[in-house]
Recover the amino acids of this structure.
């Protein structure tokens, strides 16, 4: 059985008087009939002072016109968009800004007066106006949206960037028009919704990162084909705007046109590719000459020494035979060194059989020559990679394994290849002594670790990334991620 819950007139009076919003009632001529404590606080007048006063005494001429227009519409039955903004003149002369709702008081079918509910938003409005001045005066393209995703600010700089005026966009939720041909959330919309990083990833896959300075803020880079004649690259930051309780009430997004920087980067990338290819072709040529021209000469010299040594008569001193044997051994060592140099310059196994056999050859060399338990592991569906990808991944692995051999003091090394649908990851791990990482990878250059810088550059040539994870006595992991 449901219990009935009824409010008495006394209950309604209690709610009215103790409401946090200002509430008052006046007759059709504007004479104030009743008000609550919040109304006293808002106006600065006590109950005894404002009783019998007219609403005109609380309004300047400009805002009295607003009140008259609302009164006219309500009397004629027209719709009034509420809440609306109004200004009120306090007893001390200060002007307070209110968000206000007004409804008619109807008695016996006739409008006898009006009742009002108002909230003081002076501080919020002041902060909004200050924000507006800061944003409008900024040379950085910026816009602000509120909790309802409506644009509240659209500065001059973003008008210049997008070609869309503030009159077109402010008050709407059409901020997407500046960047996309179809409606979808922009970064600021995602911030207002308080979405997770996974949801940001869905809209900006691999293009975003969390802000290191502001909680809940994100930054990203992307190409926007709708901007300008041939599109623009933009770097953009979206930051939440919070109220005093920490709730998100909006978001500000700032943008930077980085098209020229990206074009310069593309040019540099192209030239580095050309240099790298030329370098690899030169390595290939030198390796071929060593293998095809110098190695046969050393091999022939070894054979001649064998013939000389076997044809020497027994009466010649044994010391002479030992010197010939010594020369033969030196020649064989030189031949082996030359073959290793040729293989390091450009192993034929890479050109003939591909990346995985070449990696296996390198790990077998570590096992055979240095006693390091090295191996190659492959996950996912193996497939043929572009020649440039194979070559640069091989060079990264070659440098990493060389560092393990020279510096790590490791007994185990693993090269792991992971084939994904649209990427390939290569992780090279060891159980060696590890080291303390600098704050940035670029700082390796100051400590003469140029090999690591070279590995990073090769990953960037493939539009990928290289990350090094290491701690003293905890080994090292070199992780290369390459999009395909």
């Amino acid at each position: 059985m449901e219990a009935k819950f009824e409010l008495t007139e006394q209950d309604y009076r209690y709610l009215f008087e103790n409401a946090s919003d200002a509430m008052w009632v006046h007759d059709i001529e504007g004479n104030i009939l009743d008000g609550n404590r919040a109304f006293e606080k808002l106006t600065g007048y006590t109950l005894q002072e404002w009783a019998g006063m007219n609403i005109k005494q609380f309004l300047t001429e400009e805002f009295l016109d607003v009140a008259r227009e609302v009164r006219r519409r309500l009397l004629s039955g027209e719709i009034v968009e509420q809440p609306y903004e109004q200004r009120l003149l306090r007893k001390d002369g200060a002007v307070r800004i209110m968000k206000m709702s007004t409804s008619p008081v109807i008695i016996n079918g006739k409008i006898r007066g009006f009742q009002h509910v108002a909230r003081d938003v002076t501080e919020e409005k002041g902060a909004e106006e200050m924000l507006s001045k800061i944003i409008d005066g900024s040379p950085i393209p910026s816009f602000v949206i509120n909790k309802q995703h409506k644009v509240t600010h659209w500065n001059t700089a973003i008008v210049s960037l997008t070609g869309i005026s503030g009159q077109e966009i402010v008050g709407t939720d059409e901020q997407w028009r500046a960047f996309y041909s179809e409606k979808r959330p922009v970064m600021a919309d995602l911030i207002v919704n308080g979405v997770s990083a996974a949801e940001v990833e869905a809209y900006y896959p691999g293009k975003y990162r969390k802000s290191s300075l502001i909680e809940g803020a994100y930054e990203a880079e992307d190409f926007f084909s709708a901007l300008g004649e041939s599109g623009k690259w933009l770097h953009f930051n979206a930051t939440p705007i919070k109220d005093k309780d920490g709730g998100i009430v909006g978001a500000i997004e700032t943008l930077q046109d980085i098209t020229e920087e990206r074009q310069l980067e593309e040019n540099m990338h192209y030239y580095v590719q050309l240099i790298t290819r030329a370098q690899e072709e030169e390595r290939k040529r030198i390796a071929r000459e060593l293998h095809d021209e110098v190695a046969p000469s050393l091999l022939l010299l070894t054979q001649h020494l064998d013939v000389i040594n076997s044809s020497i008569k027994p009466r010649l001193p044994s010391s002479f035979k030992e010197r010939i044997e010594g020369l033969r051994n030196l020649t064989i060592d030189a031949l082996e060194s030359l073959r290793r140099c040729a293989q390091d310059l450009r192993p034929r196994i890479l050109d003939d059989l591909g990346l995985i056999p070449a990696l296996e050859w390198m790990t077998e060399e570590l096992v055979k020559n240095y006693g390091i338990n090295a191996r190659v592991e492959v996950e996912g569906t193996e497939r043929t990679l572009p020649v440039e990808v194979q070559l640069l991944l091989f060079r990264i692995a070659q440098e990493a394994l060389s560092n393990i051999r020279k510096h790590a003091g490791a007994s185990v090394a693993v090269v792991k290849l992971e084939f994904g649908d649209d990427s390939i990851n290569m992780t090279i791990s060891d159980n060696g002594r590890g080291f303390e990482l600098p704050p940035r990878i670029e700082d390796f250059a100051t400590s003469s670790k140029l090999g690591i810088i070279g590995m990073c550059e090769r990953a960037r040539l493939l539009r990928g990334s290289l990350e090094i994870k290491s701690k003293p006595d905890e080994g090292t992991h070199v992780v290369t991620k390459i999009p395909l």
Notes: The chain has four domains: 9-120, 124-257, 260-346, 348-484. The first strand starts at residue 22 and ends at 27. Residues 9-120 form a domain with the Beta-Lactamase fold (CATH 3.30.450.20). The mean pLDDT is 85.
